[in-house]
Design goal:
six-stranded parallel beta sheet, Elongation Factor Tu (Ef-tu), domain 3, alpha/beta, six-stranded antiparallel β-barrel, 2 domains
């Protein structure tokens, strides 16, 4: 079975006659805790000859419910569409989280989405899950509704790491506190930044280090500023390189840029979609007195990155990015 993305409840049609095993959530990060749920959904669906269904939301509910305090995202909707097929085979229903959806009671949501449309026979959620207006549909309420509407509720316990449950908020905290390796370990896969290559000021090219300037989603949580070893995916090709995250002090633009210098690569990739995976933190961002000083430092950075590549043998087995953390 392949992964089928369906945008909007009106576009969802029942697949087969047996019904579905479903899960619901934002799945921000698609971390090791999420994947435990997704694995169980697929196992139960296969065992009972049902359709596996993942229901998620766009935009993130917090952006609608409390935009001033909404967290930056570990995984944008574009990235979810890139990565969910690595971990889930089935139907992915993307619901628009708007004023109508936010005001549905748990029972209204269950009836209109899960029962009438998805034909759910088994619902699998995490232990802290809640849905519906004011998150009033906790697992106790979902169990009651399951008995009323004829589906079974399965609650999956949290995945523990170092004595604490793995969660998207815990990963965000590690990332914002500068603990990049810890964040990646909790994710269980390399952190990716998706965007379209746009034209920049071409300073890197002038210095002998041409970069792909990534127009990333501004709701994306970026790793700490600095220089990283990285690998990228461009037009299906895997490439090693080094990347920069942060403010370019030689530019009048005060925003944060994401730029990747791809080794042994000289194709023009403007307006192409690109995935950049920072793997090893090399140094912090800092201000240089001249472009000549920056060029000297970039040569040192590249040497360090090439040593990392040689040591880690990162050219071999890109499947590692889907299965475990190789960033240490």
């Amino acid at each position: 079975m392949n992964t089928e993305f369906i945008r909007g409840l009106n576009n969802y049609t029942t697949s087969g006659t047996g019904g579905a095993v479903a899960t619901i959530g934002t799945f921000d990060g698609i971390h090791i805790g999420h994947r435990a749920i997704l694995e169980q959904v697929q196992q139960e669906a296969k065992k009972n000859s049902l359709t596996p269904v993942l229901i998620t939301f766009h935009p993130h509910p917090s952006i609608v419910l409390n935009p001033q305090k909404a967290p930056l995202l570990l995984t944008t909707i574009e990235e979810k569409e890139q990565f969910i097929p690595d971990y889930f085979r089935g139907r992915v229903l993307i619901l628009t989280f708007d004023e109508h959806l936010r005001n549905l009671t748990p029972e209204e949501f269950i009836k209109t989405v899960l029962v009438d449309k998805v034909k759910v026979k088994k619902l699998i959620v995490g232990s802290g899950h809640a849905l519906g207006k004011n998150r009033s549909g906790d697992t106790q309420e979902l169990e009651r509704l399951g008995k009323k509407y004829g589906f079974e509720l399965v609650v999956v316990g949290p995945v523990m790491q170092d004595g604490q449950p793995v969660s998207s908020s815990r990963i965000r905290q590690a990332m914002t506190e500068g603990n990049f390796d810890e964040a990646v370990e909790l994710l269980g896969h390399h952190y990716a930044i998706f965007g379209t290559v746009m034209r920049g000021m071409s300073l890197g090219k002038k210095l002998g280090f041409p970069t792909a300037n990534v127009n990333y989603n501004k709701q994306k949580l970026l790793p700490p500023d600095g220089v990283y070893a990285c690998w990228t995916k461009v037009d299906g090709e895997d490439l090693d390189g080094m990347m920069f995250i942060g403010r370019n002090y030689f530019s009048t633009d005060t925003g944060k840029s994401v730029e990747a210098n791809l080794f042994d690569f000289d194709k023009v990739v403007y307006d192409r979609d690109i995935l950049v995976y920072p793997t090893h933190f090399v140094r912090e961002n800092r201000k240089f007195q001249s472009t000549d000083e920056l060029k000297i430092q970039m040569k040192k950075d590249k040497e360090l990155v090439l040593n990392i590549i040689a040591k880690e043998n990162v050219n071999v087995g890109r499947q590692r990015a889907k299965s475990s953390n190789y960033c240490r």
